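Hi support team,

I've been running sequence recovery on a batch of backbones for a student project. Most finish fine, but this one hangs at about 90% for roughly twenty minutes before it completes. I'm not sure whether the input is malformed or the queue is just slow. I've pasted the structure tokens below so you can try to reproduce it. Let me know if you need the job ID as well.

Thanks,
M.K.
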């Protein structure tokens, strides 16, 4: 990972360890990712309840998509497939659920514990092809860090 990604991870790791509960850990995470990585123009966490992703803490413009059925959109696909999805050009992907006209690329990383999807990190950028293998590595590590904090006291939406 680049120095910027490594620094972002260190900040998130310290904050998640210091926060008193899962909700605060998620809030700190999206704030820190947004602060450390300027291409992350929208950073949010969706939590999975039943067959629906529900928007949790986020940084950026409000999203009209506060609830997303499993399997719908890029977020729903990542949760259903239990796999990270990077979309270099959201306008070229028919799964994309438009949140902002400025968004050009997206990465969605499932947050999983013991093979179960608890939620996901959703990051948008106003730049086409903004996300690299460094972003994938960073966000997958962050998802692993958050999973037990989310599981310990499933926050309500």
């Amino acid at each position: 990972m680049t120095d910027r990604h490594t620094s972002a991870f260190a900040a998130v790791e310290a904050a998640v360890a210091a926060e008193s509960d899962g909700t605060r850990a998620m809030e700190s995470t999206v704030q820190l990712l947004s602060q450390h990585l300027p291409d992350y123009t929208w950073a949010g966490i969706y939590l999975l309840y039943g067959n629906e992703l529900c928007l949790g803490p986020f940084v950026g413009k409000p999203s009209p998509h506060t609830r997303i059925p499993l399997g719908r959109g890029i977020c729903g696909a990542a949760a259903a497939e239990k796999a990270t999805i990077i979309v270099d050009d959201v306008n070229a992907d028919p799964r994309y659920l438009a949140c902002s006209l400025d968004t050009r690329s997206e990465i969605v990383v499932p947050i999983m514990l013991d093979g179960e999807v608890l939620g996901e990190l959703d990051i948008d950028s106003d730049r086409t092809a903004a996300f690299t293998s460094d972003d994938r590595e960073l966000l997958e590590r962050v998802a692993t860090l958050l999973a037990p904090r989310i599981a310990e006291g499933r926050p309500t939406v």
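--
Follow-up from support: It reproduced on our side and the slowdown came from queue contention, not your input. The mean pLDDT is 91. No action needed from you.
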